[in-house]
Amino acid sequence: MTSDYKKPIPVPQVESDQYWQKAKEKELWLRKCNACNQPYFYPRDISPCCFSRDTTWIQASGKATLFTYGIVQRAPHPGFVPDVPFVTAIVELEEGPIMATNIVMEDPTPEKLQVGMALEVVFEDITDTIALPKFKPA
Amino acid sequence: MADLSRTVAIVGVAESDEIGRIEKSNLQLHAEAAYNALEDAGLKMSDINGLMTAGTSTINLGEYLGVQPMFTDTTAVGGSSFIIHIAHAMAAINAGYCDTILVTHGEAGRSARSRMGFNASDPGPQYETPYGFIGAPINYAMAARRYMHIYGDDFTRQGMAEVAVATRKWANLNPKAYMQAQEMSFDDYHDSRWISWPFHLFDCCLVTDAGGAYIITTAERARDLPKKPVYVLGAGEGHDHGILSQMPDLTRTWARNSGPAAMKMAGVTHDDIDLAMIYDSFTYTVLATLESLGFCGPGEAPDFVKDQRTAPGGNFAMNTSGGGLSYTHSGMYGMFLVLEAVRQLRGETGERQIDNPKLSLVHGTGGSLSSTGTVILGVD
C-alpha cells in the first residue's frame, strides 16, 4: 500500500498530530475554542476566531453536508490519473467547520452530487501512519 | 490620511520579446520586458531606484538586471500582485524611499510550470493537496459550482459563455494575442472539453510563457517624458483567506473592499469608468468580481454581461487585450492588465482602441480567489 501510493501525502505537524493520529484510528477530531465555544478547522493551537490559547480537541460526529464540488476530468498530477473522473469537494461538518475532501463515488455526475446532500466520513489508509478522511453519501 | 491621488504615473509598459512557448529563463523574460519598458518610457536603467516583482526575489532580479535599488518589494499574493504593487509604489514614492520604480514579471508558465513556494507544513499541502485540490482550475471550478447552485446552473453557464466569447473577440483584434487567429462561437465554447466540471477548457485562461514590465515615477517627472502620463488615482488591496476551503463566501471576493477603497481615493463612481480590466483567470472570476466590485448586485453578473455587452461594439469595454482567457496568461497575469489599461488610455491600441477613454479600473485576483488589488488609472 505505502509503496503503491503515488499521490501527495500530508505531513503531520505538532499542531495537527492528534488530528492525523485519530484519523488513522478512523475518528474525526476537531479543535475547539473554549473562549468562543466554537470548533474550527483546520487544527491549530491558537483559535482563528478570537486568537485564544484556550483551545481543546473534540470528536466530531463524522456527519456533513455537501457545500460544493467539482468533477475533475484532467488529472492535475500523475498520481491522480487512475482516479479520473474524481470528485473534489468542500463539505460542511455537522459541528459547523468546513473542510476540503473527496466524495467517494463511482461514475460521478452532477446529478448524483446534490449540494446539501447528507454525507458521512470514511477513512482511506494511504500509508502505515496516515489515513485520509473522505466522505460518501449517507 | 495623505492625499496620494495623481501623485504618481505609469510611464513605461511592455511585454517580453515573445509570448507563447519560450525556452528562455524566467529572468531573461523579466530583463527583456524591462528593456522594452524603459524604451517605452524614454528612461535608462540608471534612472531606476526602486525594484519590485513577485515570483522571485528582487535580490536575484536586481543582480540579473544590474540594479541596486533603495526600495524593494516582493509582495507575492498570486496574480493580483502586480496591481497591488502599484499601491505600494505609490506609497513608497510619496514616502520618499525612491522616485522611479521598475516592476517586472517573467514566467515560463507553459514550459517551467513554476508556482508559488511549496512547504509541507502549510495548510494547503496538508488539507487540500492530498485530495487533488491542485491548480487553479480545480479550485475555482468548485467556487463556480457553489454560485451555480445559488443562482441557477443554466443562468450562470450562459454568463460564463458570454465572457469567453466576448473576450475572444477582443483577442481577435490584438496582434500579440495568443488566440488572435482563432474565433470562438457559443457552440465552440459549449463543445470545448471538460477540465473540471463545471469548467470547460474555454472557461480557463491560457498557459503561456511571457514577461512584462511597467515603470512608475512621480507625476512631475512623468510630465517631462515622451508619452502621455497615466496617473494613479486610487488603490485598494487585501485578502480574506488562503486556501479555497477557507474562503468565507465562495461567491464574493475581497474586491468588495479593494474596489470601493480605490474608487473612493480616486473620487470616482462605477459610471465614470471607461474601461474595466478585470483579472480573467476563469470566466467565473469575472462574474464574481463584477458583483464584488459593485458593478452589479449578487447574482446579477450573468445578466450584466449578456448579449455580448463586453465585446467590441458593446457598451461596457472589458478586457480589451483578449484577457488571460485569450491573450496571455503566464501564471501571475496582473501585469498584463496594467499594460493594456495604460495603452488604451494613451490611445495606442490600434484596431481595438476604445473611444477616448479617460478612466480605467484595473483589478487583479490572486491565489484561490484569495487576494485582490484594485487601482484606478486616468489620463488628462
Give a verbal description of the structure:
The complex is a heterodimer of chains A (138) and B (380). The mean pLDDT of chain A is 96. In chain A, a hairpin with a 4-residue loop joins β5 (86-93) and β6. In chain A, the strands form two sheets. A five-stranded antiparallel β-sheet of chain A has the order 6-5-4-7-8. Chain A has a three-stranded antiparallel β-sheet with strand order 2-1-3. Chain A contains one helix and eight strands. In chain A, 6% of the residues lie in helices and 38% in strands. Chain A has a single domain, classed as OB fold (Dihydrolipoamide Acetyltransferase, E2P). Chain B has 380 residues and is of the alpha/beta class. Chain B folds into two domains: 8-113 and 209-232, 3-Layer(aba) Sandwich (Peroxisomal Thiolase, Chain A, domain 1); 135-206 and 235-378, Peroxisomal Thiolase, Chain A, domain 1. Chain B is built from 13 helices and eleven strands. In chain B, the strands form two sheets. Chain B has a nine-stranded mixed β-sheet with strand order 3-2-4-7-1-8-11-10-9. In chain B, strands 5-6 form a two-stranded antiparallel sheet. In chain B, a hairpin with a 1-residue loop joins β5 (194-197) and β6. In chain B, α5 crosses α6 (153-171) and α6 (153-171) crosses α10. The relative contact order of chain B is 0.20. The mean pLDDT of chain B is 95. At the A-B interface, β4, β5 and β6 of A face α4, α5 and β5 of B. β4 of chain A pairs antiparallel with β5 of chain B, so a sheet runs across the interface.
